[in-house]
Specification:
6-stranded parallel β-sheet, single chain, Rossmann fold, binds magnesium ion, Transcription Termination Factor Rho, Rna-binding Domain, Chain A, Domain 1, globular
Amino acid sequence: MIRYVLLDIEGTTTDIHFVHKVLFPYSALHLPAYVKAHSQEPVVQEALQSVKETIQQEENRLLDLEGCIAVLLGWIEQDRKHTALKQLQGLIWKTGFEQMHYRGHVYDDVQRALQNWNVKGVGLGIYSSGSVQAQKLLFAYSEAGDLTRFFSHFFDTQVGAKREVESYRRIVTELNLPPLEILFLSDVEAELDAARLAGLQAKQIVREGTLPSAKHDSFPTLLAVEKTTTGPRS
Ligand SMILES: [Mg+2]
């Protein structure tokens, strides 16, 4: 029996190209002006401090504001999963969503699968390397309308990296459920491996362009998985 489904975003609920072709370029374009305009705000100051510390540790270099911006733009290019970058991107993307410069992409099957799990009494949550704020925006302003009501929890890299077993252990503790009653869905084999090592069930979603894993059961859509899951109320 599955009591909870934990979902990855990129490549699972959402086209991986949405983030890379829409959100990343938008954040790169707006980051320099945003950081300069908001450099006195605590959240931005904290992120910049974190960038400075990382570069000091890794390269023994001291950064000023322009240096931080250059590093952040480089990280966007590399898709580095640094919490400071994710937080700043979350703030910038908020403006874009609120001003309707774009809507969050979700595959056609997503809304119905969430509804069906919801009816079955299965809890739902997100675990993505995008910040919690960015996750909420994507689902609040999605192409299928506001989907945030379906989710009880949003996890980002504050609980740890997606390929580390310990991250999934922290999520299990937070959800307070037996790990085997939690199903993690992702397109990435290494993430599924880590989740399984923490005792969760893990299945792969294979969208167009996904590299299929030989180690995990795979499904083309969330609806296809949903049909196979038995929730507490069914
Ligand atoms: Mg993914």
